[in-house]
Batch of 2 targets.
Target 1
Amino acid sequence: MSTETGTGTGGGAGRFDVPEIDAFTRVYWDAAAEGRLLVRRCGGCGRAHHYPREFCPYCWSEDVEWEAASGLATLYTWSVVHRNDLPPFGERTPYVAAVVDLDEGPRMMTEVVEAAGDRLWAGMGLEVAFREGVPVFRPRGGSRTPVRASMG
């Protein structure tokens, strides 16, 4: 897992790419600022979930704990965004909005970086990176031209 340096999170005025941090999610965002991805795991049913919640969305147990994620994921679906007028997205276009399946099980909305949209495929292996304390994903190994994983 690697990180890119940044200024952290906090939902600065006029920015739409980071949520407001509250007392519950502070642990998650502090870890992300340090280059670590966390998920929540239920002590009742054993399933991991993301986005962070104070209860398990599967069995409703409140016996949930923070857990370090591997940072590995598989690309589920994506869309190349060519126009977005909200700051700071306008300066990033085109960018790849994506949904990934974390190796721990949860599905996560994110952005794929370091790979053009026409170089992506469903099932592609990804790894977490961080931009200004926000988790994003890139092809595994940091390669801009990833090798396709065998499907069989």
Target 2
Amino acid sequence: MNAKLPNVDLACFARPDLERLHPRERATHAPRILLLYGSVRERSYSRLLTEEAARLLHALGAETRTFNPAGLPLPDGAPQDHPKVTELRGLAAWSEGMVWTSPERHGAMSGILKAQIDWIPLSLGAVRPTQGKTLAVMEVSGGSQSFNAVNQMRVLGRWMRMLTIPNQSSVAKAFLEFDEAGRMKPSAYYERVVDVMEELVKFTLLTRDSAAYLVDRYSERRESAEKFSARVNLRSI
């Protein structure tokens, strides 16, 4: 190794290891996908799109769980042992990948979806609930097609240290895209949802066994778990 790096702690610095990127022992269980949606309306198009995505994921061989945001308090508006918070954090820990689906409201993602993400911390002690997990983002809108919400969710996915897949879905005039039973009608929008879910499962299968190594960082190897937890703890701000 080149020793002309006076600012690098060589004890924590290492070249990427191909064996750790491609472990010989690989998980055989179904990919575990958590789905979050951003509306509590009785006929919520983000929920209907999420339910359609869950059906596709099942057909693609994944195990899914969907979190119902009804009753989730505002971030910091209740203790962390609130039942809905405990449920959400448990599902985040269980998952290997996620789907976030939001309506676009006032040109942005909904506060309901943002609240769910805000309740999932970057760190729970030495455990990082989202780091290295895959993410697919989708949005629905009442007007013409837009990408404001999915773009925002991509920023959040990066902040939560997730592996956001390249593809995404934006369903315009969502009130026209679902039948009375709540099923999505055949369309180019529907085919894009199929594409996104297929890609999510592929990326999850590809990365889940090496996820911890993929997001292992030099800077964090140099600090203790206690220091890391204090640095990312929002209550210290």
